[in-house]
Known about the structure:
The chain is α/β, with parallel strands linked by helices. The protein has twelve helices and eleven strands.
Amino acid sequence: MRDYDTETEFVRMNYIVLDMEWNQPYAPVCVERAPFPLIGEIIQIGAVMLSDDGGRLEIIDEFKETISPTYYTKLHKGVKKVTGLSQSDISNGRPFPEAIFDFRIWCGSPCVLLTWGRDDIPMLLDNLFVHNIDAKWITDCYDLQPIYNAQTDGQKQQRALSLAMEHFEIALDEDRPAHDALNDAYYTAQVCMKLDLDRGIAEYGSEGKFDLGGYFTHISSSLYSGFESRQAALCDRKISVVTCPVCGKTMPYPLWVKQSGSKKIAMCHCEDHGDYMVRVQFFKGAGGVLKACKTLYKATDEVKAYYNDKYELFISRDPSLARGEEDGDKPRRRRRRHRGGRRKKAAEAETPVVETVSE
Ligand SMILES: [Zn+2]
């Protein structure tokens, strides 16, 4: 399938534009808990290979596999509707380990993955992890949205692929309906070809880099929105309640310290299963909606040392915020007060201390 130019094979740089579809569990109770909560299971991989010939991008190959899920075998009706996939499509798909093996071979090396948005890479890592498949071959990944934003109107928000297509006057092909993994990868590649990719990658900020170094410790990621402020988000149960990925028990309330930029980290402990680090990163979505990405990491010695440095810096600015030895490891739960309506002030007083460092 792949068109090799034997004379230039070794001087050309190839990019892989990747898009995936994944199935969802039917209810939170179904979320696979071992070895960690799996929030989605990949059911389709689509990819387009772009060859960079001195800055000119060209589509040279395509890859598509439908995958039969191992954990969430029943196709979610919402996923069915969006993707047009049927239960028999996925039931007759290939097992993930086989499909991903072929994908890896197809990608070749070095493998630079390009995605539209930040969802596909963590999902790929989660799925590799749950199948116990090595992920070290994933070394370079770029979200094309910040590159598109920087090279068009300079805005910061997340953009739908359809909007970028409209911007570049890329028409939807009759034979290539959207929300199919390969077709979406194809349209993403079309957008990519309108961008100065070399410059985009050269200017790509470290803030936007996918945290691949933490792969072996990365357990799960989820995205939340609908918060009034960062402060409100940190106090919201969706963010503040951290459960052990093994037993599901709620771990003590996180004490957030600044990692860098808008990122906050906290250390959590399960009496039976050890330490975990939770990280929250804020960003603005479409229409300026505040979003928070919450990621859980296994706290290896390296992760703990990293956290301790950030913690020392944090308390050096305000020692009164230091976590007490005697009460620090116990859960601090907000009590609900219903008497006499909502006691906002009291509730606020009971919320955990959060960092308010201004720089
Ligand atoms: Zn536990």
